[in-house]
Specification:
Elements lengths: L2 E6 L7 H16 L3 E6 L5 H12 L6 H11 L1 H16 L4 E4 L6 E3 L8 E4 L2 H8 L3 E4 L3 E3 L5 E3 L5 H11 L4 E6 L20 E3 H9 L7 H10 L3 E5 L8 H6 L2 E4 L4 H5 L4 E5 L2 E10 L4 H11 L4 E6 L6 E9 L3 H15 L4 E5 L2 E7 L9 H11 L6 E5 L2 E7 L3 H11 L9
Parallel strand pairs: 1-2, 1-9, 2-6, 3-6, 9-11, 10-12
Antiparallel strand pairs: 4-5, 7-8, 11-12, 13-18, 14-16, 14-17, 15-16, 18-20, 19-20
Helix pairs in contact: 1-4, 2-3, 6-8, 7-8, 11-12, 13-14
The structure holds adenosine-5'-diphosphate (ADP), aspartic acid and magnesium ion.
Length: about 425
């Protein structure tokens, strides 16, 4: 008998028929003798709907007080899901009980809309499991030390599931979604994308941080820190397929490099449309300038991603960086009103129509010429690169948003990701 955590995403929970299917699948696992904890997301579209309602009524500039209410509202989507799923499980003849984050409790910090899980008290859940119950716990939410409801950021149910699996030392955490695993890139953009049987933890971490929303990055971080066996698989296979076959399907996140993984220089391509670029032209090139610009940005709780400072000409330089698109207006205001004048910038420019495209692979450590192959392939398509950033196992470029799909397809082909690696 094993302790297994299942997570079901929004599409998998998208209608009462689908919820019934989830219940039948979970029942199959429970009847095979496993202790089951299930973490569902809100029904598809529900979180967007709730946040849309909130937006209609919220003040123009979101205050900390308003952020608290956003979480109060958004967390209800998952509450409906757990109740419905527990009902469906009971209808399957199982003993099932549902809990919201605060009932467990899943303790988080107080950063509304992007809270971090601090600890999980599993006593209540363990007692239920010992009593033979299936326990259904909301994804995406927790509670801070003042009993305020918090949420973990979009896609946060993945993190809830992995964190619960880590806290309970579960034997495996299975992330059921609307694709049958992790692909070389988003199969909705590149139909030739291939499913990976395994992906290394480090590559998955990069893919998630660079925009592949198949797993929220923090879920991968948790899996790495606590060595949670993690698998991504489809919730759309018939629920009654053989359980052993199902247990081996999808993509396994691995923690040890094997020889096969070494062969693929580039394993995947990620992209992200959620960023915007800002530039300060003609700032004095002197010590402390980066701090004078980025200090106030950090103080305003705005995360900065790619940063570029150009070589100086006559003591002046241009300084560009990217921020999340949601923070774009705030950043522009800050630069135009305070930072720009303070550092005597000649001009402040902004562009929200950019995207970041990245190639990822642990093989890049031991191969040269990968980045230049990337740049050549993009130039052959006439795609201009605005910014470049690299790390040991990834290279990212910032380009005009309108070329995003072309760039992803071009790179997918250039690195032969549509072809099965040599055996
Ligand atoms: P869920 O609601 O189950 O959490 P998400 O929409 O958050 O599902 O994540 C699954 C989606 O991630 C897929 O439908 C796919 O479009 C997208 N995706 C992006 N990159 C990848 C990738 N490399 N492999 C698989 N899916 C990907
Ligand atoms: N329902 C939340 C969202 O839409 C969390 C999740 O689905 O993982 O972002
Ligand atoms: Mg998701």
């Amino acid at each position: 008998m094993a302790l297994i955590v299942h997570k079901y995403g929004g599409t998998s929970m998208g209608s009462t028929d689908r919820i019934r299917n989830v219940a039948k699948r979970v029942a199959k696992w429970a009847r095979a003798g496993h202790q089951m904890v299930v973490v569902p997301s809100a029904m598809s579209g529900e979180t967007n709907r709730l946040l849309g309602l909130a937006k209609d009524l919220s003040p123009a500039s979101i205050t900390p007080e308003a952020m608290r209410e956003l979480d109060m509202i958004a967390a209800t989507g998952e509450q409906v899901s757990v109740g419905l799923l527990a009902l469906a499980l009971q209808a399957e003849g199982l003993d099932a009980v549902s809990y919201t984050g605060w009932q467990v409790p899943v303790a988080t910090d107080s950063s509304y809309t992007k809270a971090r899980i601090e600890s999980i008290d599993d006593a209540r859940v363990r007692a239920d499991l010992s009593a033979g119950k299936v326990v259904v716990i909301t994804g995406f939410q927790g509670v801070d030390e003042d009993m305020n409801i918090t949420t973990l950021g979009r896609g946060g149910s993945d993190t809830s599931a992995v964190a619960i699996a880590a806290a309970m030392k579960a034997d495996e955490c299975l992330i059921y979604t609307d694709v049958d695993g992790v692909y070389t890139t988003d199969p909705r953009i590149v139909p030739e994308a291939r499913r990976l049987h395994t992906i290394s933890f480090e590559e998955m971490l990069e893919m998630a941080s660079l925009g592949s929303k198949v797993l929220q990055i923090r879920s991968v971080e948790f899996a790495g820190k606590y060595r949670v066996p993690l698998r991504v698989l489809s919730s759309f296979t018939p629920w009654d397929i053989d359980i052993n076959e199902e247990a081996k399907s999808g993509t396994l996140i691995t923690f040890e490099e094997d020889e096969k993984m070494e062969q693929a220089v580039v394993s995947g391509i990620a992209f992200n449309r959620d960023e915007a670029k800002v530039t300060l032209l003609g700032v004095p090139d002197k010590p402390g300038i980066a701090f004078q610009i980025l200090g106030p940005v950090a103080d305003a709780n705005i995360d900065v991603d790619v940063i570029i400072q150009n070589v100086s000409q006559e003591g002046k330089t241009d300084f560009s960086f990217t921020v999340h698109r949601n923070d774009y207006q705030r950043t522009m205001e800050l630069l135009e009103k305070t930072v720009g004048p303070a550092v005597q910038a000649a001009k402040v420019l902004g562009d929200a129509r950019i995207c970041k495209v990245s190639i990822v692979g642990i093989g890049m450590r031991s191969h040269v010429g990968i980045a230049s192959k990337m740049f050549r392939s993009l130039s052959e398509e006439g795609i201009n690169i605005q910014m470049i950033t690299t790390s040991e196992i990834k290279t990212s470029v910032v380009i005009d948003e309108k070329y995003m799909e072309l760039a992803v397809r071009t790179l997918h082909r250039a690195f032969e990701l549509d072809q099965a690696p040599a055996a």
